[in-house]
Amino acid sequence: MKRVILMVGLAFAVLGAMAQDNPYIVKTKGVKKTAAKDCEFSAAELAEEPEATDFMGKNFRFYSMCDWKEGMRFMVIPEKYDLLVNTFRDGVTNKEVSSGKLRHKIMVYNGHEDMSNGRVHVNFTCEDDGKNYYYELPNGTFDDYCYGKLGVPTLAYLGDVDKARELLLGKTLLTRTQFFRVDTEYDGDGYREVTVDKNKVVEVKAIGVGTRSFPVKIIVEDENGEQFYQCVAMSKTNSGMRDDEFIVDNEKFLFQGSFEFADDNMAVSNDVKDYLNTTVYTKVATSMSSKGAGKVRDIQVPRFTGFVIDEINPVKNTRYYTLTLRETESRRIYYKDVTFTKEDEQGGLIADNSDDYFGYVFGMGEGAARSTSKETRAAIREGRVIPGMSKDEVQLAVGEPASKIVDSEGLDMWLYARSNGVILDVKFDAKGKVKSAKARAGNKQATTSQKKSSRRNVGGIPGGTMKTGTPIDQ
Fold first, then answer.
1. How crowded is residue 132: how many other Cβ atoms within 10 Å of its Cβ?
2. Least buried of 16, 131, 247, 282, by fewest C-beta within 10 Å?
3. pLDDT tens digits, residue range 417-439?
4. d(C-alpha 366, C-alpha 178), whole Å
5. Can you tell me the distance from the alpha carbon of 263 to that of 412, in angstroms, rounded to the nearest whole number?
């Protein structure tokens, strides 16, 4: 086994040097010749794809094996496992051929063939040596196999690389993630991770082949001359990965997960851009949309939910912007359309308590109640009042009171009127903490009138509670 490993290492060293004449092999500048390390991705990095943008859908079509056409070009990019389990056989001798020997060779698809023994051969001609090779399907018919996303191991689809070169070289982009890579080996696939600012302006300097899973290697350069790259899947043709694996940390290995065109954000003013990458929290319960299982659905987000603003994109021909929000605890992604101005489309003023107005829905920072206990934060999110809450926490939970009074003991008491005629009395102790929260019957007609005067503060949100914390129907 040691001998096999040694031979594999020597093969990579020799073939790496030969690969530099290959125009599909590109490196970030300043890379040094060092010992080899595979440019592969760990299992932790392999993790539902966002819907394709117009640019992606128009230019990078996914081809299942059923749709492959003769003449499609691929490059052999073996990973460690592929050096032990060979993919191809010689078309003349039928003998297995080392994946290391074929590394960086270009394979041209020649169709498939049903053999007399019941097996299926997927045929290729090597553009580099002119020889014929085939991949034998492990089982089943071609139709059974081709509808999956298994494909042919080791092959990176060059059609995506060529199209990306045509469309992206020299273009100005913005970074959408902080995590990229820099080459560490001139004649190998070694790299190191680097962290860069999101929304950094970069120029595409080179595009080559990456890996089988992420075939397009895009090298960009920032204003300081620093280069870094991302290997991304464009059409996902033969990537061997399912759509639902391109989520969370793995989302950056889609083009739209790492880059966007700078022109897309030209309409975003500098004042609005200042909100990018800031932490905010919801001051009121509000509706947002979120993606799950490939579907977009509306979700009611409670008060005091923390988010980081990952993106701000203008809604064409309106004063609105679509915020991409990452929940600070679950890291789930949400979307909400807001306006940063109080003027509507006709130039009139919108209400201060409009759910579309950023300043009404969001507060800056993590929120005052972040220092409270887990139990108190849960009560705030659920719209409940419990003993020990501060006045700020009560406001976060149930909004502004209908009235504030001082009782016979000289203690502050806040009154909340419910639409069902119930009055919630919240009494504070001398230190300003909730001493009790009790419900009592009130004049329904009067409380309904009071309710209308402060509807945005307490209406439509789960109300206060009795001392036990049981919610009161509004």
1. 15
2. 131
3. 876 678 889 999 999 999 999 88
4. 21
5. 55
From 28-32, 52-56, 350-354, the region with the lowest mean pLDDT = 52-56
β 422-428/132-136 pair status: unpaired
- Please count the other Cβ atoms lying within 10 Å of the Cβ belonging to residue 439: 19
Q: What is the Cα–Cα distance from 164 to 332, expressed in whole angstroms?
A: 30
Residue 45 carries which DSSP code?
G
Task: List the one residue out of 104, 107, 136 whose CA is nearest residue 120.
Answer: 136
Predicted local distance difference test score (pLDDT) of residue 69: 94
With beta carbons less than 8 A apart as the criterion, state whether 106 and 127 touch. yes
- Calculate the CA 53 to chain-centre distance: 14
Strand partners, 335: 289, 324
Residue 182 falls in which region: left (phi positive, over 0), alpha (psi -120 to 50) or beta: beta
Q: Give the integer Cα–Cα distance in Å for 262 and 174.
A: 5
The number of C-alpha atoms within 13 Å of 400 and in the hemisphere containing its C-beta is 11
DSSP 298-348: EEEEPTT-EEEEEEEEEPTTSSEEEEEEEETTT--EEEEEEESSSB-TTS-
Task: Give the Å distances, CA to CA, from 99 to 17, 76, 239, 370, 454.
Answer: 17, 8, 17, 55, 72
Contact call for residues 335 and 299 (beta carbons, < 8 A): no
Query: How many degrees, rounded to 5, is the angle at CA 19 between CA 17 and CA 22?
Result: 145
- SS3 of residue 274 by DSSP: coil
Least confident of 11-15, 99-103, 450-454: 450-454
Q: Which residue has the tokens 């929000």?
A: 325
Under 8 Å between Cβ of 277 and 309 = yes
Measured distance CA(156)–CA(135) in Å, rounded: 15
Question: Bridge-partner residues for 242, per DSSP?
Answer: none
* Torsion region of 58: left, alpha or beta (phi above 0 gives left; psi -120 to 50 gives alpha): alpha
| CA–CA separation, 339 and 324 (whole Å) | 14
DSSP 8-state symbol, 471: B
Cα Rg for the chain, rounded, in angstroms?
A: 30
Question: Which of the four pLDDT bands, split at 50, 70 and 90, describes residue 269?
Answer: low
Q: What pLDDT, in 10s, does the model give residues 325-348? A: 998 877 888 999 998 887 766 666
Length of the chain: 474
Higher pLDDT, 40 or 400: 400
